[in-house]
Amino acid sequence: LFPPSQGALAAAGIAMAVAERAAFRTLLRLCRSLDRRPAQLTTLLGRPPRRYDSRQGRPMLMEGSASPFLEDAVREMCGGSTEFSHPDGAAARAARRHYGRARAMALPYLGEATALRNRLAAAQAVAEEVGAGSALADAPPEGTLGSLPELECFPPGSTARASAGDFLITHPLSCISESVFDQAVLLLDGTEDGGVTGIVLNKPTGASLGQMLDRWQSPEDSLWVDELKRLDILDCRLFRGGPIIVGNSLKESLRWLHGRGEGVRGAREVAPGVWLGGDLEEVARRTRGDSAGIRFFLGFAGWATAQLAVELECGIWVRARAAGTDLRTCALCFSPEERAAAWRLAMHSARKPMFANFPRSPGSDKRLRGYIERLAQLDAEKSSPEAARSADAGLRMGMPGGRRGRQSAGRRRG
Are 349 and 148 in contact (CB under 8 A)? Predict the structure, then answer.
C-alpha cells in the first residue's frame, strides 16, 4: 500500500470543499425561507448549557455538546435563547457565521451542516403540521389593544435583572404540560431575600371568594376569615395565583391586586396604578363591591433569583415591562379576558404576534409534546445512559427532558 499522493490529497480536499459549499447553500436557502416566515422557527429547540438545580440551590453546567458551534448557531437562530426559540429573522445570518467559523478554523463542516439542516427541517415540519407559519400566525388580536400598555420586551439573554412590575408571559411551548403556567401572564410583585415572587393573572378558579371562604377549614385563620365575610367582597371571583400555598395559612397565601391603593395602609404599588395588598377593609370600601376593581388570588409563584435568570435565558418566558407612567397597566392586570385570550392579548401588547397566534388545540398540543419529548430523549441518549434514564423518568412525570424549573418554583423555598 502506498500513501496517497499530494495530488490525490489536494483533489480530496477540493471535493470536500465543494461538498461543504453545496451543503452551506442548501442550508442557507432553508434559513432564508424560515426568516421570511419566522413563526415556523417557534418550534426550534436549543440545548441549554446550564439548568437550575433546586436541590443544590444553584445553576449547574450541563454536559458539553459534541458540536458547540452548532449549538451557538441554533442559539442565534432562537433569538439568543438557549432552549425555546424567540425567532427574530436571524437564521440566515447565523448560518453564514457558522460556515465562516468552520472555514476560518479548518473544522469539518459537512456533518454539522447536515445536523443543523435536520434540526431546522424537523422544527419546520412540526410547525407546519400544527398550522404555525400559516396565515393564522399573522392574524390580528381578537381583543382591543388600544386600552393595553405597549410593553417593552427584554431579549432572552438580557443581563437586566427582573424587578417588581415586570410581566412574564409564557412561551407557547415551554410549559405545555404545566397547567398553571401554560399560556399564563404573570406580574412580578417582589424581588428580595435572594428570591422573586409573582402572581398568575389569568387563571380563574371558577369559584368566588365567598365560596372559597366557606370551604376553608384551617382553624388558625378562622377569625380572619370571619372578618373577611363581613366585607363587601364575597362575590369577587377567585383566581389561581400560582402553585405556592404556605402551609395551611390562608392569610399567607391569599393576595389581592387593586387600583385604589393611594394612601391605603400596607398597600404597595407594584406597577403603574396597580397595588398589592393593604388594609382590605379600606380597599373594599373604596371599590364598593366593584369586582372589576379588585382581584383575589389564591397562591403565588416563586423562584430563587438565579433560577429565574436561568429560565429567562432558556426562553421559557417573554419578559416585558410597561413604561413607568403608563397607567394602562391596570387594563392588562384587570382585563376581562381570561386564560388563553388574556395570554394572546398580553403577547400582542408585547409585540409578539407569532407567539400570540401560535395554534393550540388538544390535537396540536399532543403533537408538540411528542416532539419535545422525543428531542429531549435523543439529546439525553447522546449525552450518557444516566442522562437518558433521568430524562425518561422526567417524561413519565410529565416534564420534558426531566426539566423541573417551574415545578421547583411551585414550592416555597426554605
Answer: yes
Beta bridge partners of 191: 196
Strands (E), 233-387: 237-240, 254-258, 268-271, 274-276, 294-298, 301-304, 317-321
Q: Which amino acid is at 342?
A: A
CA 36 to CA 39: how far, in whole Å? 9
Half-sphere exposure of 301 (CA within 13 A, CB side): 27
Gap between the Cα atoms of 331 and 216, Å rounded: 31
Is 360 strand, coil or helix?
A: coil
The domain limits of the chain are: 6-136+363-382, 151-203+302-357, 204-240+245-299
* pLDDT, tens only, 76-134: 999 999 999 999 999 999 999 999 999 999 999 999 999 999 999 999 999 999 998 66
pTM over 0.85: yes
By the 8 A CB rule, do 171 and 96 touch?
no
CATH superfamily of 151-203+302-357: VC0467-like (3.40.1740.10)
> What is the C-alpha to C-alpha distance for residues 301 and 198, in angstroms, rounded to an integer?
5
In words, the CATH class of domain 204-240+245-299 is alpha beta
| Structure-block grid coordinates of residue 301 | 409563584
- Quick one: DSSP state of residue 401? G
Q: What is the DSSP letter of 411?
A: S
- Residue 256's DSSP bridge partners are 296
CA 126: distance to chain centroid?
A: 19
User: Which has the closest alpha carbon to 185: 203, 198, 162, 169?
Assistant: 169
Instruction: Return the ∠ at Cα 320 (arms to 319 and 326), rounded to 5°.
Output: 160
How far lies 305's CA from each of 52, 161, 162, 197, in Å? 11, 9, 9, 10
